[in-house]
């Protein structure tokens, strides 16, 4: 019945469900960038030279604020739409893995490193004794795409795939994928900042190679921020994801080369590959390894609850529907000619199982905080007999 309801939902309902599924920091970045563009459009502000990243302005006037204003301002409606639509799936998956505070810190770190690399390369190009090129010092760059290119590098490193699909048209070697994107965007849109995108790639490479490890705090740093009173109103929101993973270093894991990922990662959508990299409940050893690789709450909360849980049966959808219907109607007394339940040793066990299938608010909130719908969470937990491992798999199979 639920599939019919979803299929008959209107556009507004679908948009609301889509927006509610976006975690806190990712949605906040979309809102901030969107509001800034709309305000600039309404008041007629187009003096982007005052907020863009200009190496000459940073050097001569020490306007370091440009490092962060450049990622929040966009030059056109297509510019902001393209960047935000690219950010939503990729940022959502990263936030569910790392947690909201950790992702925010990563974005700030990438913005800073991109700007520093941009400045250094512009200085080298302008003041080298062989072929000075002053234009890069005066170039004005704005937009979030530099951070997006850094995320693409991290994403490709995490997947471990040998090839990637470019817009679903053709496959290229994974190591060349981001460089081909750089060339394609530059050819299709000559006005984009080549140096800004290049610095995003270099910053992402430096991150995946561990050059920024000393700049990344441990999990206790993020936990202390989450426990502060001034963030309590945000943490209580269902879209906020806690940084409660098992990676104590707080670093985004990089691909170590044990097992190449399945070719199913290349299903045509180049922005949603992270959803296939989540830990799978194959064995206790694999679960332990994945728990270390993926530090975010979105994938480790359930895996740590019951490591010895048995593998769910193949009819999870059937159990979901049956248990969902059982919740809506009260249990009826037996009317058959069998012995009373008091003499039947199986009856008490079934009764206890039904009573235990009622999910507690704490269990529901854990899964709601991962970005799932509350109603679906309640039904999934009931179908899984309160096994959060199975409930997460049910919810993920529905989304898939």
From TrEMBL:
Top-rank taxon, per record: Eukaryota
Keywords for this protein: Membrane, Transmembrane, Transmembrane helix
Subcellular location as annotated: Membrane
Biased composition (Polar residues): 278-289, 300-318, 349-358
Bilayer disposition of the protein: Multi-pass membrane protein
Segments passing through the bilayer: 21-45, 65-91, 103-127, 133-154, 166-188, 194-216
Region (Disordered): 278-360
Major location category of this protein: membrane
The keyword Transmembrane appears for this protein: yes
Tagged with keyword Membrane: yes
Residues of the UBA domain: 359-398
UniProt-listed InterPro entries: Peptidase_S54_rhomboid_dom (IPR022764), Rhomboid-like_sf (IPR035952), UBA (IPR015940), UBA-like_sf (IPR009060)
Alphabetized SUPFAM superfamilies for the sequence: Rhomboid-like, UBA-like
Family label: Belongs to the peptidase S54 family.
Protein name listed in UniProt: UBA domain-containing protein
Source organism of the structure: Penstemon davidsonii
């Amino acid at each position: 019945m639920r599939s019919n309801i979803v299929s008959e939902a209107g556009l507004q309902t679908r948009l609301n469900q889509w927006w509610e599924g976006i975690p806190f920091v990712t949605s906040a970045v979309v809102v901030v960038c969107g509001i800034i563009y709309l305000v600039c459009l309404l008041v007629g502000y187009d003096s982007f030279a005052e907020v863009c990243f200009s190496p000459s302005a940073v050097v001569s006037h020490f306007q370091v604020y440009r490092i962060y204003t450049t990622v929040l301002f966009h030059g056109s409606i297509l510019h902001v739409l393209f960047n935000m639509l690219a950010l939503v799936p990729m940022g959502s998956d990263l936030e569910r893995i790392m947690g909201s505070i950790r992702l925010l810190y990563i974005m700030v770190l990438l913005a800073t490193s991109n700007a520093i690399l941009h400045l250094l390369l512009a200085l080298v190009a302008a003041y080298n004794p062989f072929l000075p090129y002053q234009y890069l010092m005066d170039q004005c760059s704005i937009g979030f795409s530099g951070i997006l290119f850094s995320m693409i590098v991290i994403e490709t490193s995490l997947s471990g795939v040998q090839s990637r699909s470019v817009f679903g048209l053709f496959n290229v070697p994974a190591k060349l994928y981001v460089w081909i994107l750089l060339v394609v965007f530059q050819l299709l849109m000559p006005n984009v900042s080549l140096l800004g995108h290049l610095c995003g790639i270099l910053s992402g490479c430096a991150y995946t190679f561990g050059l920024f490890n000393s700049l990344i705090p441990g999990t206790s740093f993020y936990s202390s921020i989450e426990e502060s009173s001034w963030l309590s109103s945000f943490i209580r929101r269902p879209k906020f994801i806690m940084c409660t993973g098992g990676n104590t270093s707080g670093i985004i894991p990089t691909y170590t080369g044990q097992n190449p990922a399945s070719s199913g990662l290349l299903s045509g959508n180049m922005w949603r590959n992270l959803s296939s990299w989540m830990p799978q409940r194959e064995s206790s050893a694999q679960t332990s390894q994945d728990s270390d690789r993926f530090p975010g709450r979105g994938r480790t909360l359930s895996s740590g609850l019951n490591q010895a849980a048995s593998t769910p049966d193949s009819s999870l959808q059937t159990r979901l529907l049956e248990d969902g219907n059982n919740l809506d109607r009260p249990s009826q007394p037996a009317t058959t000619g069998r012995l009373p339940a008091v003499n039947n040793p199986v009856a008490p066990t079934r009764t206890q199982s039904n009573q235990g299938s009622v999910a507690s608010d704490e269990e529901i909130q854990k899964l709601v905080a991962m970005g799932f719908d509350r109603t679906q969470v309640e039904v999934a937990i009931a179908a899984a007999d309160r096994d959060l491992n199975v409930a997460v798999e049910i919810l993920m199979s529905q989304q898939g």
